[in-house]
Specification:
Chain B: Pfam families: AhpC-TSA. The complex is a heterodimer of chains A (166) and B (195). Helix content of chain A is 32%, strand content 24%. By secondary structure, chain A is α/β, with parallel strands linked by helices. Chain A is globular, with a radius of gyration of 14 Å. The N and C termini of chain B lie far apart (42 Å). The chains are: A alpha/beta (166), B alpha/beta (195).
């Protein structure tokens, strides 16, 4: 299977969750319910497909935490959302990953791989950079593997998504 | 073993899951067993039974004996079918991340495969190591697996979890679909239920 191509419309997917109220608030979606990805209130979304069981993802997690913090520090939280999708992970497993690496970004379990399958069954970690395009999002970048510098990756992602930042 | 279609693609896609926190088994070293019959054995024990005694060689040079745990630690035995295969290579490194869950419930984890000791050792080294003891049920081949009823006809064990309390009583059994990882949450619940 192949990742979604750059320039391709992001599929109109429903994310089942569960997600916490805080995560729902951060994403701007209704708490306690599945949500459509397009309903995320943002100009851009960086979606990272990960697995608790993936050693590369474990190695990458500190950079993920940094990226989330940089977005906050730059006051970009209203424009850009960083979201994790736990491929094949239960809510419990996603929470283990969250707690182990003190991640505060929304992490969504996808235990039955249903979203993962729709995203091209990518290797993990895989970063999709998505820019708002009408009611939905368009893929503007895909990246397989660990991020060596959260700041450099974020700057590039913001540029690709057409969002000004430092 | 048959070649597979979709599930292989799924496993291949998650192949980076095949290693421990700081090291990864190169994809070319992972053998793809294909889509297998989910369960191909008949349990010989049930929850509430006394666990059978065992004495297996471990990769750290020690022995793994039931007697080592009795009265001291709860014990989780994680049987995985084979070294150098995709799901197994993700399951054990995942337990690296979950060490605290076992400790919280005063439980030791013992990983067991029917691989011979050198092969099992090489695989674990390639994964960057695991915090728990890993033992070989290679000879007499699948002896413990057979006594528990989780030895498949092709000579590998099922993907199975056994929780044994400090009195040596089996408290939880999950003989899982060999093609998929068991949910860590269910195991954590089983450990919490020991109290």
């Amino acid at each position: 299977m192949k990742p979604l191509a750059e320039g391709q419309a992001f599929p109109d997917l429903a994310f089942k969750g569960p997600i916490s109220d805080a995560e729902a608030k951060e994403l701007g979606v209704a708490p306690g319910k599945p949500f459509a990805f397009k309903d995320i209130k943002a100009q851009a979304v960086i979606l990272v497909v990960f697995s608790m069981y993936c050693p590369f993802c474990q190695r990458d997690a500190p950079e993920l935490a940094k990226m989330h913090q940089i977005i906050k520090d730059r006051g970009l939280s209203g424009k850009v959302k960083l979201v994790g999708l736990g491929a094949g992970n239960s809510a419990f497993e996603v929470n283990v990953f969250r707690e182990k690496f003190a991640l505060r970004l929304p992490l969504i379990p996808d235990q039955d791989f249903s979203v993962y399958k729709a995203l091209g069954q990518v290797g993990t970690p895989y970063y999709y950079v998505l820019a708002r395009s009408g009611p939905g999002f368009t893929v503007v970048e895909g990246h397989l593997g660990c991020v060596s510098s959260a700041e450099a990756f974020l700057n590039q992602a913001l540029a690709k998504a057409g969002i000004g930042g430092k | 073993m048959r070649r597979l279609a979709f599930p292989l693609a799924l496993l291949l896609a998650l192949l980076p899951a095949a290693a421990a926190a700081q090291k990864a088994v190169p994809p070319e070293l992972i053998y793809q067993p294909g889509q297998l019959k989910p369960v191909d054995s008949v349990l010989a024990v049930k929850v509430g039974d006394k666990a059978p005694d065992f004495d297996l060689p471990a990769t750290d040079g020690s022995r793994a004996r039931l007697a080592d745990y009795l009265g001291k630690k709860n014990l989780v035995i994680s049987f995985v079918p084979a070294a150098w295969t995709p799901v197994c290579s993700g399951q054990w490194p995942g337990y690296n991340l979950a060490k605290e869950i076992f400790e919280k419930h005063d439980a030791a984890l013992l990983g067991v495969t029917c691989d011979n000791l050198p092969s099992l050792n090489a695989w674990i080294v390639e994964m960057g190591g695991v915090w728990f003891k890993a033992a070989s049920d290679f000879w007499p081949h699948g002896g413990l697996s057979a006594r528990l009823g989780v030895l498949r006809p092709e000579g590998v064990s099922e993907r199975a979890l056994f929780v044994i309390d400090k009195a040596g009583v089996i408290r939880f059994i999950d003989v899982h679909d060999i093609n998929a990882r068991p949910d860590l949450g269910q195991l954590a619940k089983a450990l919490a239920d020991l109290k």
